[in-house]
Amino acid sequence: MEFREYKKRLTRVAKEGRVALAIGRAQSSYRRNLQEAFRRFPHTLELAREVRRIKEESILRMEELVASAREAMESNSVKTFLARDAEEARRIIGEICGTGKTIVKGKSMTSEEIDLREFLEEEGNEVYETDLGEFLVQLLGMKPMHLLAPAVHLTREEVAELLSRHLGRKIPPRIEEEVEAVRGFLREKFISADVGITGTNVIAADTGAMIQIENEGNVRLASSLPPVHIVLVGIEKVVPTFQDAMKVAEVTWRYANYTVPAYVNVVSSPSKTGDIEKVTTYGAHGPRELYCIFLDGGRSRLARMPRFREALYCLRCGGCLYECPLFSLVAGNFGDRYLGGIGAIWTAFVTGGLKEAALLIYSCLACGRCKLRCPMEIDTPGMCLELRRIIAEGEEE
To answer: Which of 196, 233, 277, 358 could form a disulfide with 222 if both were Cys (CB 3.0 to 4.6 A apart)?
Structure first.
């Protein structure tokens, strides 16, 4: 995108004030709930520092840990793949899914990174986002506006109008009835789905266990009702032990605005039973087949860059975005596939390059509010300033 077009878009969205209104409501709720969570669970701050140390070690050992996780998974009947880039990841998933299938998806930034839904639709499949916010964004034909709350820019009145138009009946602007309408529509898709695709928040290398944090229950349904379950995950999400993984999970959900989430799913194999003669048989009440695709996509290269590797510590809690002054005015318009200041770093090294990231890098105010909120204390402003220097001096990225 050219600078003038980018500036024009940001200015228009900021002046309209509609996005700022919706974000303002979300910010108030986020800050209030987070403070209550810290009051009830004061150990969270020290736990976050421990998780930072876990992530530092894990990124340095990333390739080793991925290999260990794959070995543990394969021993438990999970088929694993290592995709070097987005194209390879799409090809692998496309071969598993085939064409003419009904596919239900849980919210996954990694799937956004590789344009997975669009690819599968082009292959002749029906694909439904099942996170409520992602579903609304899919209906709009837009990109997500927040890591955890994709439709955070929409008011209840806009949601009612959107659902009424797409579901063919009048939906009032009452949140409970809007949620019920989406639930009814998607429940049929869950039941008839051929494939479920999800991400995962963290993986334990010692057991291959995948931990999924959610509130809506859609990930639980997408990972248990279809006969085939596919997990797509970045290689930076692997930590040494199951205990480490649970620590990462707790810090993630706490900073994501929850004292405790509605669901914490642990997936380590296809559905199985050994109740008849102790013979293990797969496909009891859940999927018969489970696949895990590990995506590199520039992460191993980023891990070798001491000044920027801490971008890989990001837990995707989304807290930084609620503190960003620019994001509070324009939401995900400040970002590409990954949003905000941290999204600028990911765009530079993972999903694009310096040229694609330049607009985002120079949009960052370097105020430091994101770093203060970040549980990993990621120095996003410092990295953006360093990238500005690299751009100005014409160094190789």
So the answer is: 196
